[in-house]
Write a structure and sequence with these properties.
With about 120 residues, the chain is of the alpha+beta class. The chain has a single domain, classed as HIT-like (HIT family, subunit A, 2-Layer Sandwich). The protein is built from 3 helices and 5 strands. A hairpin with a 7-residue loop joins strand 2 and strand 3. The structure holds adenosine monophosphate and zinc ion. The site of zinc ion (ZN) has 6 residues, from helix 1.
Length: about 120
């Protein structure tokens, strides 16, 4: 499990070592298109701070984590999915299928999404 900053894929995207299609940047967060999109719009929103999982979020991180959601609403408008609707989801650990251990929101939209998720 890549749970340290040194071997973290999303920290490498933040540093520019790994290329990504970055579509949003703020003081606390960036967003880029998912490399394996599951919907017409599939954007990954990450904090600049390395936090491995939801379980590692501390009270001090609340402003940063909140900024992921304000980024999501801004991006939804820019992507043209705000009115029709979209889903924002953060997976945690194995049962949820988390594969990159730097917290991130998935913003999915552009089609009707099934519920409950698999
Ligand atoms: P999760 O399974 O919730 O940890 O989500 C990780 C997401 O990161 C998956 O949807 C992957 O397709 C996506 N992903 C993995 N590598 C890259 C990459 N280099 N650029 C963009 N998205 C990526
Ligand atoms: Zn990281």
């Amino acid at each position: 499990m890549a749970d340290s900053k040194a071997d973290c894929l999303f920290c490498s995207i933040l540093s520019g070592d790994v290329p990504a299609d970055i579509i949003f940047e703020s003081e606390t967060a960036i967003a880029f298109r998912d490399i394996n999109p599951q919907a017409p719009t599939h954007v990954i929103i990450i904090p600049r701070q390395h936090i491995p999982t939801i379980n590692d979020i501390s009270a001090d991180d609340q402003t940063i984590v909140g900024s992921l959601y304000t980024a999501a609403s801004t991006i939804a408008v820019a992507e043209g999915v705000a009115d029709d609707g979209y889903r924002v989801v953060m997976n945690c650990n194995a049962d949820a299928g988390q594969s990159v251990f730097h917290i991130h929101l998935h913003l999915l939209g552009g089609r009707a999404l099934g519920w409950p998720p698999g």
